[in-house]
Amino acid sequence: MDDFERCVLSTIKEISVTTAPYERIYVMFSGGKDSLVALDITIKTIGSEKVEVLYIDTGIATPGLKDYVVDIAHRYGLKLNIAGPKYDFFKLVERMGFPMIKYRWCKRYLKIEPLRDFVKQAKERYRSILLITGLRKDESWFKAKGSKFYRHPKLDVDVYAPLFEWNSDHIEKYIITNNLPINPLYKIYGKAYDCWCTVFKTPADFARLGINHPQFFEKFVDAERKLRKGGSALYYSGQRIYLRDIQKDPHYYLHSFPQGGKCPLCKIF
């Protein structure tokens, strides 16, 4: 038995024990590879009777991502719950400006508040609930400081990350071994991107967005135009980067800057 096989068997045993006390299990599905594996291994371990899919619709996910989420839930025959923010991202930008490292209001309004409202309603229906995520500790230094199982302090709900010790090779091998349908957006962006918050995106990321989804990209450009005092949506390596400039020559920015990654501070998404 190799390392991958031991990892899978250990995870299956742990999922079976960890999920047993809960009346309802919600697998947080972002449309990415990690949450896909978390969903698949959960269903294959405990079945689908008490499992539902939960998708946080930020309103600024990559076009096509939500369709993929709907399709996956349908394939597994699972109920899909969609929780979304009360506020439009671009309206919030007009009021507060684009999110910044020290002022990441996007996480609160687009993810935490919708999830908190959903959890509150779920608790009214079931005695006990558990959120399962695809979080892995090797994704970032910050996530490595997290926990596999914990009580979320803001949501007052148990959160479990069965893939916490898995690495990217484990994820890829599981997907291939089980012939799982990867989100087609990976071929375009290398990631699923359920949220185009500008904090952890690079000029290259937005250049790729401008090339592949120009109408969606135009919404960000328009929001930037409305900023007071000529502010920019991006602040990268100590310099302001304007989306309007990326729009004029996206290929320059695509090849002149590195691609970004997932937000290292979003512990459960």
Count of helices? 11
Largest sheet: 6 strands, mixed
User: Regions with pLDDT < 50 over 5+ consecutive residues?
Assistant: none
Instruction: Report the sheet-strand fraction.
Output: 5-15%
- CATH-defined topology of the largest domain: Rossmann fold
Give me a quick take on this structure:
With 269 residues, this protein is an alpha/beta fold. It has eleven helices and eight strands.
What labels describe this entry?
269 residues; alpha/beta; Rossmann fold; six-stranded mixed beta sheet; 11 helices; 8 strands; globular
Explain the overall architecture.
With 269 residues, the protein is an alpha/beta fold. The chain has two domains: 3-187, Rossmann fold, CATH 3.40.50.620; 191-256, no CATH class. Helices cover 45% and strands 12% of the residues. The chain is built from eleven helices and eight strands. It has helices at residues 3-19, 33-46, 65-76, 89-96, 105-125, 168-177, 186-189, 203-212, 214-225, 243-248, 250-256; strands at residues 24-28, 51-56, 80-83, 129-132, 149-152, 157-160, 234-236, 239-241. A six-stranded mixed β-sheet has the order 3-2-1-4-6-5. It has a two-stranded antiparallel ribbon with strand order 7-8. Helix 4 runs parallel beside helix 9 and helix 8 crosses helix 9 (214-225). The protein is globular. The mean pLDDT is 92.
Topology, element by element:
Blueprint: H1 3-19, E1 24-28, H2 33-46, E2 51-56, H3 65-76, E3 80-83, H4 89-96, H5 105-125, E4 129-132, E5 149-152, E6 157-160, H6 168-177, H7 186-189, H8 203-212, H9 214-225, E7 234-236, E8 239-241, H10 243-248, H11 250-256
Parallel strand pairs: 1-2, 1-4, 2-3, 4-6
Antiparallel strand pairs: 5-6, 7-8
